[in-house]
Amino acid sequence: MEQPKGKMEIVQQSTGIPSVNRKFSVERETLPHQLAAKLRLAITRGEMPPGTRLTETTLAAQAGVSRSTVREALRILSKDGLVTIVPMTGVHVTILTLQDVQEIAEARIALEVYAARLAASSPSSKLSGPLDELNRLTEAVKARRWADIVDADIGFHRSFMAATGNSRLLQFWSSLEGQIRLYLSYHAEEAYELTGLVDAHKVMLRAVRSRSPERAAEAFRIHIAQRTARRLELWRQVAGGERHR
After folding, report:
1. Structure pTM?
2. Looking at 61, 77, 93, which one is the last position of a domain?
3. For residue range 89-134, what is the model confidence (pLDDT) as tens digits?
4. HEC profile for the chain?
């Protein structure tokens, strides 16, 4: 019998144990996940700025899906930290605070500095991914394409996490990726210092290639700390400006 499109049926073979011939229906990709992916892109590209109110009715009409699909998509984004659900009030795109930015940076330093050590200490670690992302970042900076700059920046750091070969380390980092993308996208034109951005990433790549764990760890720590300091200062300026409006 032809299987329903988008679903996969798994039937366990009998092993003599009662109730083993059960059928499991597994969705390859559900509508809520598809909608969540589109909303995630819109949020991180600045099309839905922090604080934007998201209503089930409006999103359902725009996407041509049910409100229950929208509700589940928003739950997915809430787990990523991209939207905030306030009971009896509604849903809005997450507004990161100074403390949020500081905590995200501290978590990144803990994960990425350790990942840099691992990648540098392993002769078998594959560094083609970071090099590809560095080339993509170079082109994006030349063209001043801000969304692509953010995407390549994140891709560069993600590829180093993958290069460690430690799947759980990558999983921990990936759980932060949505919020990392959110704060990197925030006022990107003011926050990014394009002069020296590509060189800073080259320094990190060379440090890992040197196979010196200490040098690699220090390169990542300095980079994240310096970039965070700049963004925190911008956050304070923007917050101060909004208070005096």
Report:
1. 0.79
2. 93
3. 999 999 998 899 899 999 999 999 999 999 999 888 889 999 999 9
4. CCCCCCEEEEECCCCCCCCCCCEEEEECCCHHHHHHHHHHHHHHCCCCCCCCEECHHHHHHHHCCCHHHHHHHHHHHHHHCCEEEECCCEEEECCCCHHHHHHHHHHHHHHHHHHHHHHHHCCCCCCHHHHHHHHHHHHHHHHCCHHHHHHHHHHHHHHHHHHCCCHHHHHHHHHHHHHHHHHHHCCHHHHCCCCCHHHHHHHHHHHHHCCCHHHHHHHHHHHHHHHHHHHHHHHHHHHHHHHCC
State whether 162 and 74 are in the same domain.
Answer: no
User: Final residue of a domain: which of 93, 124, 139?
Assistant: 93
Q: Which tens digits make up the pLDDT trace of 150-191?
A: 999 999 999 999 999 999 999 999 999 989 988 898 878 888
Please compute the mean of the pLDDT values over residues 75-96 and round it to a whole number. 93
Q: Based on the domain organization, do 131 and 238 belong to the same domain?
A: yes
Range of the domain at 205: 98-243
123 and 141 part of one domain? yes
Residues 39 and 109 in one domain: no
